[in-house]
Design goal:
11 helices, single chain, mainly alpha, 0% strand
């Protein structure tokens, strides 16, 4: 989910000022691609990504709306279930599944509470919920905000300098092969040639 939100903001940073197309994110990426690695201290949109990917789902949806408009209908409908899953995850990850309200003592071995238990059926249900949540955000953001940005970003960051000095046809071939190696569906060479032309033009 973080990668989807971050790509949407990177591609259309104008969402930060409520003017989606005010700034071409690719132009900023070309200026200094090193700071666009998510998770590094230089990453410029960490705060905005965290506001959508952390906290209660009421807050997440409110912050999502500020940047991208109304959240996907699925997310709003499943808000309570997502919050239940978030709380369960926090109990397991932050407290080893123990109950916070249970008192601790100088001899904690006598105070151990049973860990939170998840049945196999519930685990499958939660995994499906996670998958459908991510898919909802992808479907909502890709066409209007992300588009080909991820592929362009991969070229700018990972294409070897030697290849970048070659003819457009060779660079388009490199990009097409790179997309295939990363498990994505590759399309005709003309699509990648058009992307290279676009990158060169800005």
């Amino acid at each position: 989910m973080r990668s989807i939100i971050s790509c949407a903001i990177e591609s259309k940073p104008g969402v930060l000022i409520c003017i989606h197309n005010a700034v071409d994110g690719v132009r900023l990426l070309k200026t200094d691609y090193r700071k666009y690695k998510v998770g590094t201290w230089k990453y410029p949109y960490s705060r905005q990504v965290n506001m959508i990917c952390q906290g209660t789902w009421i807050d997440r949806n409110r912050n999502f709306t500020k940047l991208f408009g109304k959240p996907p209908e699925f997310i709003e409908r499943k808000q309570n279930e997502l919050d239940h899953l978030r709380n369960l995850r926090n109990k397991i990850a932050h407290n080893y599944g123990r109950n916070h309200s249970y008192d601790s003592s100088d001899m904690p071995i006598f105070n151990l509470m049973p860990s939170e238990r998840i049945s196999g059926e519930s685990l499958i249900k939660y995994m499906q919920l996670i998958n459908e949540t991510v898919q909802s955000f992808e479907n909502h953001l890709y066409k209007k905000y992300i588009g080909s940005y991820e592929i362009i970003k991969h070229y700018i960051i990972h294409c070897p300098p030697r290849v970048k000095r070659e003819a457009k046809a060779n660079r388009a071939r490199w990009l097409k092969e790179a997309v295939g190696r990363n498990g994505l569906k590759s399309v005709g060479i003309q699509y990648y040639s058009d992307l290279i032309e676009y990158i060169d033009s800005i």
